[in-house]
Amino acid sequence: MLNRVKTVEVTKAYADAFNDGDVAAIGEMLDDENVIFSRQEQSSIVGKENVLRRIRNLFWRANEQNVSMTVVNAIADLGKTKARPCLICLRNGVPVALCVLSCKVNGKINAIAILLAGGVVASARATEPIASLENEKDEDNSENRKQLLDITKVYIEKFNRRDLVSLGFLFDEYETVFHRSDQQAIVGRNNIITRIKDLYRRVDKHAQSLHVVNAIIDVDGKSAWPCTLGVLDGTPVSVGLLKLRLDGIIRKIDISLDSDMVAKARPTEPIPEPKPKPITLEQVLEREEWLHNRMKKIKKAMKKQGNLPHLMTKKMRVEQQLQKVEYLKKKLG
């Protein structure tokens, strides 16, 4: 059973040591005999010295790339555990992961789990202020709004033209973060461009039409804030919010699929009608199989983590796509 008080104390102490870059202090907190470091999509690391080596390498890479890596105390609902003490991991002030510690009754840490799923990271609630970076340009004033509007328009134009080279000039090689609410964060220009290229491939494979239009939204206390509105086959499905550095480079792209947020966005240009693309019955059946496999994964995640909002949104999207597939199957005979 989770010892909440002990876990809170250990998590706070770990946060202090991590933010100080004090690997020796972290070492004192780890269990000597049995400690595991796990990160999604990577093999687990076992043993105190191996875990400390992993943490040293993290600090070394961050210093080499001139990247700020910090953590803040938080709570998150994980599975059946509510308000679980944890840490939000920040890369240059942007939340990119969740760190969950487990400890023995003696207070020694025996497990460090790094969660990267965007929905899980977004659901965490910080229990202390998250300091803003000095080079952010999120303040609501006419100068910042105009620059954000100009960059958003350029981003949309390059995205729709599939001009990946020009799009890449808007991103920083190491710092820019792409964060979709139901996925893990993607960091760095090349990784983001690869992700966008894969998106184009999937859209073409399933004979879909994807277009992004300029829009405005009331969000975070800002009125009529510039945003992007993603339109799939003529239907708005996503909202994108850009955050800029002082030099105009995109620092973060936040993509939300939440239906309520999408409904709040007001397009400032016409939503284009989807261009009909030739599609075969074979393509439709292939997409149906893919959607059913995706639904299985979503239901498995819901069974394990509960009916989290981002999973419910995913499930609804897949159900809508399956309805469209049924229509196309009948149409194509």
Could you characterize what this model shows?
- It is a single chain.
- The protein has 333 residues and is of the alpha+beta class.
- It folds into 3 domains: 4-126, Roll (Nuclear Transport Factor 2, Chain: A), CATH 3.10.450; 142-267, Roll (Nuclear Transport Factor 2, Chain: A); 281-332.
- 43% of the residues lie in helices and 28% in strands.
- It is built from 10 helices and 14 strands.
- It has helices at residues 4-19, 23-29, 48-64, 118-123, 142-161, 164-168, 189-205, 259-264, 281-305, 309-332; strands at 36-39, 45-46, 69-78, 81-91, 94-103, 109-115, 125-126, 177-180, 186-187, 210-219, 222-232, 235-244, 250-256, 266-267.
- The chain has a 7-stranded mixed beta sheet. Strands 9-8-13-12-11-10-14 form a 7-stranded mixed beta sheet.
- A hairpin with a 2-residue loop joins β4 (81-91) and β5 (94-103).
- The longest helix is centred in the C-terminal third of the chain and has 25 residues, at 281-305.
- The chain is globular, with a radius of gyration of 22 Å.
